[in-house]
Design a protein that fits this description.
The protein is mainly β and 71 residues long. 6% of the residues lie in helices and 44% in strands. The chain is globular, with a radius of gyration of 12 Å.
Length: 71
């Protein structure tokens, strides 16, 4: 459930999907959880740790959509 969201309406807890971060294709290549203030929690399998990163312009260019699963 949940409709596809635009970057401008993200709220804490929304799940963000990214595409083409390391492979140009049809599938999502990365997922994060938006925590507010242009920050996203995600993990990098190479370093195997959870990070709290800014949703920078570099990340925004890979933005493929977002979903809100809870009200």
């Amino acid at each position: 459930k949940g409709g596809n969201l635009d970057l401008s309406v993200l709220q804490a807890g929304d799940v963000i999907y990214f595409k083409d971060t390391y492979d140009n294709g049809r599938y999502f290549t990365h997922v994060g959880i938006y925590v507010g203030n242009d920050r996203v929690i995600n993990t990098n399998t190479e370093r195997e740790k959870v990070e709290n990163d800014f949703l920078t312009r570099d990340w925004k260019k890979y933005f493929a959509g977002a979903k809100r699963f809870c009200k």
